[in-house]
Design brief:
Elements lengths: L7 H15 L7 H14 L4 H22 L43 H5 L2 E3 L12 E3 L11 E9 L8 E8 L6 E9 L5 E9 L5 E7 L5 E6 L14 E8 L4 E6 L12 E5 L2 E3 L7 E11 L7 E7 L28 E10 L6 E10 L16 E8 L1
Length: 390
């Protein structure tokens, strides 16, 4: 902490910076970060009396609140932070003093790829649990090692509507032949240190981020695909879209571009449900049990074709069928709204099986092609069920 500040107000601000920089733990949520940084930029612009009250009371209170309630990484879907703090304004009816300072421009948040790669930063978690670290140094080049994280590209754009440019970075994590992806916002604080704003857009089911650019008017344009054609698959299988993301006053959200994959008239809410399997006594050297699989259309329109597969077992489930209906190509006819269909699936297991969990996964495609179709609620497109001895 420097002791060369000219007055008590700057000393208070400096103490606040030092406490915040030394605080251990994960990165604060993007709301606290943006609000704190914008408040510090603007709080110096008021008169001495307003500054003294604001610096001593508001920032310290906000920081203490953050330590107890808002000290977690931003979420994988959007940056959940409150609206930027409003600038300090004179009391209504009061005339401005001729000696009032001229407002300074916002801090320049442009960070080069080289600068970012040399700095240890906090990042939101990647979608996969295989890339768990959130405090990392992000090299500017992939090493090729499994679970390696790196920054692929940075663009400079206004991320919060303050007219200054911040930095959006496309980050990758190597989890196999195809990496996981996310776009994270960065800025500088008043002392020039790199600060994490939060997640702008993260990888989701059928949403892989391949490239980014600056969006006119602020935010980013993301080049996304519904899949990554790895492992010998032809690139022609990928579908590409451009989607726009920006700060809407309370969070980063999609503000333009396509919103779904496949025929929009088929996008509805299909749900898969599976009952537990109770294994009976040993018969012919096996324990047999039956699962009842149900697919239901909870949405407003008829669906595309669908299938249900089984996998992600917590025990040896090789004896359980791979598919609820036939094989991987046995897509079922579309379901009308409010309708459901069920099938019974029998599996035989070794007599000494410990049992465990199996996950059923629903996949929806077009009515005349194999291109996947989005679902309005993808959270119910999987169902975990238990296999146990009766």
């Amino acid at each position: 902490m420097s002791e060369s500040y000219d007055n008590l107000i700057d000393d208070a601000l400096g103490d606040f910076h030092a406490v915040e920089a030394a605080a251990a733990g994960p990165v604060p949520a993007a709301g606290t970060v943006r609000a704190t940084v914008r408040h510090r930029r603007r709080v110096r612009l008021g008169t001495l009396g307003v500054l003294a009250a604001t610096v001593v009371a508001v920032p310290v209170t906000a920081f203490a609140t953050n330590l107890h309630r808002d000290n977690s990484p931003p979420t994988p879907a959007v940056s959940d932070r409150p609206s930027p703090t409003a600038p300090v304004t004179p009391t209504p009816g009061a005339s401005a003093s001729p000696s009032s300072p001229t407002p300074a421009p916002p801090v320049d948040g442009r960070i080069t790829l080289g600068e970012l790669s040399r700095t240890e930063v906090e990042i939101p978690p990647f979608r996969t649990a295989l890339c768990p670290d959130t405090r990392v140094k992000l090299p500017a080049k992939e090493s090729g090692a499994m679970y390696d994280r790196w920054v692929e590209k940075v663009v400079h754009t206004d991320l919060d509507g303050d007219t200054a440019l911040e930095t959006a970075a496309l980050l990758f994590c190597r989890t196999g032949e195809a990496p996981d992806s996310q776009v994270v916002g960065f800025d500088r604080d008043a002392s020039g240190r790199i600060r994490t704003l939060g997640l702008i857009v993260g990888q989701e089911e059928m949403l892989n981020i391949r490239d980014i650019g600056a969006r006119p008017g602020g935010g980013i344009v993301a080049d996304v695909t519904d899949m990554i054609a790895c492992c010998g698959l032809p690139a022609s299988l990928e579908r590409r879209q451009q989607r726009e993301y920006a700060w809407d006053g309370s969070r980063f959200t999609q503000v333009g571009g396509a919103t779904s994959w496949g025929d929009p008239s088929l996008v509805t809410d299909l749900e898969v449900l599976v009952g537990d399997v109770v294994l009976g006594p040993v018969r012919d050297g096996k324990r047999f049990g039956t699962a009842t699989v149900t697919v239901r259309n909870n949405g407003p329109r008829a669906s595309g074709r669908f299938r249900v597969g089984f996998g992600d077992c917590t025990f040896d489930c090789a004896a359980f069928p791979d598919w609820a209906w036939g094989d991987h190509g046995a897509y079922q006819p579309p379901l009308e709204p409010g309708r459901s269909v069920s099938v019974r699936v029998e599996g035989g297991f070794d007599p000494d099986t410990p049992g465990g969990a199996i996950t059923a996964t629903l996949r929806v495609v077009g009515r005349s092609d194999g291109n996947r179709v989005d679902d309005t609620d993808p959270t119910n497109n999987t169902a975990m069920f238990q296999v146990r001895i009766g």
